[in-house]
């Protein structure tokens, strides 16, 4: 008997997915959402690259962390909501497209935020995205009585915090950073408070897939940014960049390998799930920052950067070290023991020393290759005689 598919409705009651739902995977709308978000990531990384090449490290780091928070937090909230409540009706699609429009508004405001410290456009785009999320949560409150308390808390919390972001635009310049910290913390507390009545039914495997896909997309942005910088140099007649290009490629390949080297799981306990989800801010931000640092290294090799080789080395080494430590905390620390667990933080420490050497980017690449090799060796299957002498487990 042939199964007939119903036509997708314009409106469907928003009930939650089951946590144990089989074959829960990313939808085309979610992938489109990610691709549009990477435009904002690319703008942030490009602006960071320009500031680093000009030697404005303090301004670069501060602006980058604030801009990237708006990008990451909006992406994260949609991702967890969609994991629980994706109805794929017309109203859901249109509301999500409004959120995507907010992401594009954020992207358009990134250059001005870096150049002039004007976060108004980014704030407007952020508020558009977050208020569209309120529409999602109100639909969930109506359609899912079991999690209505959580959905209402989300809607109220998000709305209140958005009012704070808009008020921030009229505060004196001296209050810009303190007010950002306060409002960012308020945003982070909304899920902590909202989920306490009973966690929304997000799907653990779906969340892991979504985070992995966004990591891939950000890594792709790094490849693009570095390739464009190298192409510009080659087009200008500088053909001595191939060694640096090889080191850049090795670094990106290693970052991919280390994230996807082992199966990833996210706990269904609220505190652990939030720690894992929030921790990925450093994963995504550091990966994009590595791309900015590698592009600055190309500028320095072409004598276009207003900073030393050591400073450029730290522009690459610091985000790489942050990435290694974050992946270690989120994915490695609980699974590995002894030397295996120590390899990631030890390599991060050596990476931070690499800029003191003669070829910082190349040294970082070598250290990452050694770390990848150590993880590959650690995963080798036991020898037959060792396996034969091993005690029997429950599944034997």
From TrEMBL:
Pfam families named in the record: LtrA (PF06772)
Keyword Membrane (UniProt): yes
Keyword Membrane: yes
Domain of life where this protein originates: Bacteria
Chain segments annotated as transmembrane: 31-49, 61-85, 91-110, 122-139, 151-170, 177-194, 214-234, 241-259, 279-299, 311-330, 350-373
Keywords: Membrane, Transmembrane, Transmembrane helix
PANTHER family: BLL5714 PROTEIN
Protein name: Low temperature requirement protein LtrA
């Amino acid at each position: 008997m042939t199964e007939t598919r119903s036509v997708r409705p314009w409106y469907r009651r928003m009930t939650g997915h089951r946590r144990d739902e089989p074959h829960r995977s990313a939808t085309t709308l979610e992938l489109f959402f990610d691709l549009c978000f990477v435009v904002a990531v690319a703008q942030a990384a490009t602006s960071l690259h320009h500031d680093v090449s000009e030697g404005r490290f303090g301004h670069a780091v501060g602006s980058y962390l604030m801009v990237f928070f708006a990008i990451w937090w909006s992406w994260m909230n949609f991702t967890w909501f969609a994991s629980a409540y994706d109805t794929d009706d017309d109203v859901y699609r249109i509301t999500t497209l409004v959120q995507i429009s907010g992401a594009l508004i954020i992207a358009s405001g990134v250059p001005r935020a870096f150049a002039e410290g004007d976060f108004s456009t980014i704030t407007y785009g952020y508020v558009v995205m977050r208020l569209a999320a309120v529409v999602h949560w109100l639909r969930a409150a109506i359609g899912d009585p079991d999690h209505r308390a959580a959905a209402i808390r989300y809607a109220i919390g998000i709305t209140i915090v958005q009012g704070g972001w808009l008020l921030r635009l009229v505060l004196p310049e001296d209050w810009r950073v303190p007010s950002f910290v306060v409002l960012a913390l308020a945003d982070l507390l909304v899920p902590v408070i909202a989920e306490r009545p009973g966690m929304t039914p997000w799907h653990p495997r779906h969340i892991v897939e979504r985070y992995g896909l966004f990591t891939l997309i950000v890594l792709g942005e790094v490849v693009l940014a570095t390739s464009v910088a190298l192409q510009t140099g080659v087009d200008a007649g500088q053909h001595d960049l191939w060694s640096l290009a090889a080191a850049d490629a090795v670094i990106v390949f290693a970052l991919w390998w280390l994230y996807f080297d082992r199966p990833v799981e996210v706990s269904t306990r609220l505190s652990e799930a939030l720690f894992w989800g929030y921790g990925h801010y450093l994963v995504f931000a550091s990966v994009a920052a590595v791309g900015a640092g590698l592009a600055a290294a190309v500028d320095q090799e072409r004598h276009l950067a207003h900073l030393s080789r050591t400073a450029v080395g730290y522009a690459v080494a610091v985000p790489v070290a942050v990435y290694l430590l974050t992946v270690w905390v989120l994915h490695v620390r609980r699974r590995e023991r002894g030397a295996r667990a120590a390899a990631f933080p030890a390599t991060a420490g050596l990476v931070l020393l690499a800029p003191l050497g003669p070829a910082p980017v190349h040294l970082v690449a070598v250290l990452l290759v050694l770390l990848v090799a150590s993880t590959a060796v650690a995963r080798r299957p036991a020898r037959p005689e060792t396996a034969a002498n091993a005690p029997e487990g429950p599944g034997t």
